[in-house]
Design brief:
Helix 5 runs antiparallel to helix 6 and helix 6 (115-140) runs parallel beside helix 9 (179-205). The protein is built from 9 helices and no strands. It is globular. The protein starts with a helix and ends in a 10-residue tail after the last helix. The protein has 215 residues and is mostly helical.
Length: 215
């Protein structure tokens, strides 16, 4: 139980820090995304900047909502006190994920690194909603443990952007790769980690019948 509580506290710290960073960076420091857009060279499609920026801002907003909603629903204490809120918040998470995926689908063709990177984002846009809907299906069937496990898998994808940029920075600044290549590696590297790490957590700390993260 102490390990799970520690994991939850660590998850909460990372989630809150990333939400604050995303909001401040995208709405206050660089609302025009100048730094990020400077790496988009050789695009096959013409970028309609005002539309792209609006979509990006919607994308960031709902990504932050999904991260916050998912974090709250992993608390058993909150679940025990207000099951109705847990259920409603779960639907907030589901809708937010779908809107993040929808906006990501619009931005994918303009991804840094070209078509191969776009394909990686399209794969992410299929995997994440699938896992989220599976979590919904399991809870509808009253399978609590399976619902939690699918939510762990789904929630991991809230950290897609963070992982992409961490991996891209490592290869770009650490190993001297071109930024476009580093970003592509970041996308595919994040897919592998986002599939593997939740499965490891489930196997290490999950219980066969009643999986619990935090009480």
């Amino acid at each position: 139980m102490k390990i799970r509580k520690t994991l939850y506290i660590l998850l909460a710290c990372v989630s809150v820090a990333f939400i604050l960073y995303a909001l401040v960076n995208n709405y206050l420091i660089e609302p025009g995304a100048q730094g990020f857009l400077s790496h988009k060279t050789g695009l096959k499609r013409e970028l309609n900047l005002p539309v792209w920026l609006n979509v990006m801002h919607v994308h960031v907003a709902f990504a932050c909502i999904a991260m916050a909603a998912g974090l709250l629903n992993f608390s058993n204490r909150l679940l025990e006190k207000n099951r109705k809120f847990h259920r409603l918040n779960g639907y907030v998470y589901l809708v937010s994920v779908l809107l993040v995926v929808l906006t990501s689908g619009y931005m994918a063709p303009y991804a840094t690194g070209g078509k191969i990177t776009s394909m990686g984002f399209n794969a992410l846009n299929l995997i994440w909603p699938f896992m989220t809907i599976m979590a919904l299906v399991q809870i509808k069937k009253k399978r609590i443990a399976r619902h939690r496990n699918w939510m762990i898998r789904s929630y991991a994808f809230c950290f897609t952007n963070l992982l992409i940029h961490l991996i891209a920075t490592l290869f770009y600044q650490g190993f001297g790769f071109a930024y476009a290549a580093s970003y592509t590696i970041g996308v595919y590297g994040s897919v592998v980690l986002l599939l593997a790490v939740p499965q490891f957590i489930i196997r290490m700390y999950g219980q066969p019948r009643e999986f619990t993260i935090i009480r």
